[in-house]
């Protein structure tokens, strides 16, 4: 008994350390995104592309991620989770240097393809490890992990804001950031769980169709992540081109957005436990809708920045709750979660391109009108996340129900 107890305590201590390690990995991953987003105006000017061409280029991360994400499972299967994450995260941090080096539309598209491919593979690997840690701890941590991603994005965007304000060359800024983040990422990966497949275990399939339940839940996640991706990559451009602000103040709008997302995600687990998933998402959707209206209707930069902050606050916890709902929505949780992850991740990557294309045809104001409509979709569609509501599940488990007498497959 003493030996078993000692082994259990040692195992739980290892899992707790792995939780902090994977949280640091999430922060490093977010810092790359934040560093890139604040320098999009500089990259646009350096490559000499219009808003529509920039939108086209920003479609290439989605293409790269869609093609590369299925490879993450096979890489983890072959090399083990820790080694795979170490390599994929380093590839992602180093890919930060590529977009700022691009002197034309063609080279920018190629750079963003590699940027998106490395982003997608490392994202899949770190989320898989996060879910494993959550399962072993037997409590919700995914919202907090996504909160650490937002903290990292906040730090990255804050450094980008300072660099933009000082007029620093983005090539130098991103080179230094890549070196620092690669080092931090390699250190963090030393503490994650070292999961390995059995020698005779078959590698995961490259592609499986998600169940219908995942498609419905994924639609809600799509709305939230579209608003997040659009705001993250286009808020600085919006402030500069529509509000006529300086480069430093424009970059600060991205910082405001990532700040509110970080705060909401870190506090998200407690809020959801108290109010439930459905109510939390409906209120968040309402806040995001108000934020979108402020962005498109505000007469000055301050109100527009407040609008971006409300957008970040409103959509922050939707994706973790979508994952939770998918995991309880059918007989194959892993397949459902994978389907929702693909939909939501792809949404975040295509959003910048869609915003740019619509802006080219109309204006950025109209583009964020679309974001506002999708934010309102969270209010209407929050009910599909009921399966992920921990309070609802607990209530149904303790309340008398005739469902217990029904035959189960």
Write a structural description.
The chain is mostly helical and 409 residues long. Helix content is 80%, strand content 0%. The protein is built from 18 helices and no strands. The protein has helices at 2-38, 40-47, 51-57, 60-79, 81-95, 98-101, 105-137, 142-165, 170-189, 212-241, 247-266, 268-275, 277-297, 301-315, 318-327, 333-361, 364-381, 390-398. The longest helix has 37 residues, at 2-38.
Could you give a short description of this structure?
Helices cover 80% and strands 0% of the residues. With 409 residues, it is an all-alpha fold.
Write the layout of secondary structure elements.
Blueprint: H1 2-38, H2 40-47, H3 51-57, H4 60-79, H5 81-95, H6 98-101, H7 105-137, H8 142-165, H9 170-189, H10 212-241, H11 247-266, H12 268-275, H13 277-297, H14 301-315, H15 318-327, H16 333-361, H17 364-381, H18 390-398
Question: What string gives the helices and strands in order?
Answer: HHHHHHHHHHHHHHHHHH
- Beta-strand portion reads under 5%
* Biggest beta-sheet profile: none
Into which percent range does the helicity of residues fall? over 70%
Number of helices: 18
**Beta strands, count:** 0
Task: Provide the residue-averaged pLDDT.
Answer: 82
Distance between the termini: 38 Å
Radius of gyration equals: 21 Å
Pick out the low-confidence regions.
1-7, 392-409
Shape: globular
> Structural class from helices and strands?
mainly alpha
